[in-house]
Amino acid sequence: MTGATVRLEGVRIGLGDHLVLSDVSLVIPAGSFLAIVGPSGVGKTTLLRALAGTVPLREGRLSIERPQDGSAPQVAFVFQEPRLLPWLRTSENVALVAPGRSASERRQRAYAALAAVHLPERAFSAWPRQLSGGMAQRAALARALVTEPDLLLLDEPFSAVDALTRLRLQDYLLELWERFGFTAVLVTHDVDEAVYLADRVVLLGGRPATVQESFAVDVPRPRDRGDARLAALRARVLGALDREAGEPIAAASGQ
Fold first, then answer.
1. Can you give the pTM of this predicted structure?
2. Residues 54/45, Cβ–Cβ less than 8 Å
3. How far apart are CA 224 and CA 136, in angstroms?
């Protein structure tokens, strides 16, 4: 797989009579990692769904291109919940969307994808209800990975797990991104997650929403979560979110 280049030019998106996004312009280079933050309900998930092709544009232009040959890119989506089919075992959930000419080939690809996300082999044959939250989300990552995506879209994929599992899943995601080279676009409310994972953090704001600020994460990889440079950038992003929300962060969090 390889990364896709994403370009949005003057994009406007509405849901019914409500204009959600207006004049959104972005370039996401092939193989890069972009994080999108913003107040709740601002339109972050709507933008992600537009990239997935499930929400139409009212105006503007959106292109997703593979740099090698210009052929149609493969786009995969990871949701907040794993959304595994409960009547299929873990490996069967992944094999269901795997490319391949035979069931055997699809099964082999599913096993390779599950191994890539460090899911224990004993979990391959487990039912979704038998998996922990972290294992289920790793299976969801494997299901996306097995499609060999050029563009991976992630909508708050770790919000439903505990704090320690979330940190481990972040590192699994980084390992996959560095290994396979896909372009990643992550929607998150966790600013620490955004600055740790991404090359760039974009803030959506306004009604209708547009890109308010863009923050380059100029911290070399591998990164240390305790790095003072990440802490300084986190403070800048939180300050921008504070201004966008129109209320102090400390007051909003009850501090």
1. 0.93
2. no
3. 26
